[in-house]
């Protein structure tokens, strides 16, 4: 119990058991709240699902309507001595139950639905992963070296960072029309939006990480004769590598946030196209399933990268512990 009590103190430490319990609760509590809203009518069921329209002409079986409108329709039928409509309390169509979403999620990997991004979550998501991968790789190939140089060389920082500060305040979608005009309507402008949305932040974050390197290491290396490229590649980069790796994990999540916007540029494609098409026909269980898939893959990727960091930078973990 000491680990649990310490978790509620400012800057308290938690033991492994407490972390495990809190991790399980972090998943269960939202699911329980969602289940309560979905399966307990007295919690929140603002609509009625019509099972029998009775004598009301405009009602149909399977139709949803607000409770107040349903009560009004029932009253009108009773006044006219006609069969009253019948229905069951339900939630709006845009809030499917966890069971419906789970069924849709499983169906995405097991059913033989028609092929195409508008039908298949897996095909659509596979295309989206390619957009994220190439966008983040291109951004990193430019942003990581430039960020390290900005952090290590004041002259480069003075030349680059003012322009980067200007462009990082411009919304990435604002470049959409320009990207289509230059790169066409297919995947290239989508990748460009991911790059634009990530690159400028990446340069500044990595430059700041580079500046935080313990200056005593620089002084000691210079005393031993290291300078120039040798100092950069043998001292600076190894010294910032664990923090640089952590920054890249965070920035990868940043790139994911631009995915939906990027895939609306040019021809619609990927998971965005799937979500849009499913929402158009009110198949919101598929919409939620697609959102869950994005979250699972994003979180899973971050967890794998975290485990790799523990293996790759054991000295950092030991010094922090």
UniProtKB/TrEMBL annotation:
Entry membrane topology: Multi-pass membrane protein
Record field: transmembrane: 21-44, 131-154, 166-185, 191-209, 251-275, 287-309
Limits of the ABC transmembrane type-1 domain: 125-309
Protein's cellular compartments: Cell membrane
GO biological process, one term: transmembrane transport
Gene Ontology cellular component terms for the protein in this record: plasma membrane
CDD domains for this protein: TM_PBP2 (cd06261)
Keywords: Cell membrane, Membrane, Transmembrane, Transmembrane helix, Transport
Keyword Membrane: yes
A Pfam family hit: BPD_transp_1
Domain of life: Bacteria
Record family assignment: Belongs to the binding-protein-dependent transport system permease family.
Identification of the protein by name: ABC transporter permease subunit
Source organism per UniProt: Acetobacter estunensis
């Amino acid at each position: 119990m000491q680990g649990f009590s310490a978790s509620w103190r400012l800057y308290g430490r938690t033991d492994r058991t407490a972390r495990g319990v809190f991790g399980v609760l972090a998943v269960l509590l939202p699911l329980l709240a969602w289940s309560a809203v979905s399966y307990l009518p007295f919690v929140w069921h603002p609509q009625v699902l019509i099972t029998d329209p009775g004598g009301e002409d405009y009602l149909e079986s399977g139709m949803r309507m607000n409770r107040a409108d349903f009560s009004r329709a029932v009253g009108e039928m009773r006044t006219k001595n006609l069969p009253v409509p019948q229905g069951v309390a339900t939630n709006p169509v845009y809030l499917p139950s966890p069971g419906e979403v789970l069924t849709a999620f499983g169906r995405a990997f097991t059913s033989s639905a028609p092929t195409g991004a508008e039908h298949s979550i897996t095909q659509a998501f596979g295309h989206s992963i390619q957009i994220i991968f190439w966008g983040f790789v291109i951004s990193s190939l430019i942003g990581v070296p430039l960020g390290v140089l900005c952090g290590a060389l004041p002259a480069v920082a003075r030349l680059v960072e003012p322009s980067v500060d200007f462009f990082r305040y411009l919304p990435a979608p604002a470049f959409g029309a320009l990207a289509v005009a230059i790169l066409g309507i297919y995947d290239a402008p989508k990748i460009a939006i991911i790059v634009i949305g990530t690159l400028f932040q990446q340069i500044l974050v990595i430059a700041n990480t580079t500046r935080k390197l313990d200056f005593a290491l620089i002084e000691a290396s210079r005393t031993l004769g290291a300078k120039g490229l040798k100092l950069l590649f043998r001292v600076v980069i190894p010294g910032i590598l664990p923090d640089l790796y952590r920054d890249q994990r965070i920035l990868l999540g940043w790139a994911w946030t631009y995915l939906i916007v990027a895939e609306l540029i040019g021809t619609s494609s990927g998971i965005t196209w799937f979500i849009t098409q499913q929402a158009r026909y009110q198949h919101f269980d598929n919409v939620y399933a697609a959102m869950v898939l994005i979250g699972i893959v994003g979180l899973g990727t971050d967890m794998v990268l975290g485990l790799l960091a523990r293996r790759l930078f054991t000295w950092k973990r030991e010094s922090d512990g």
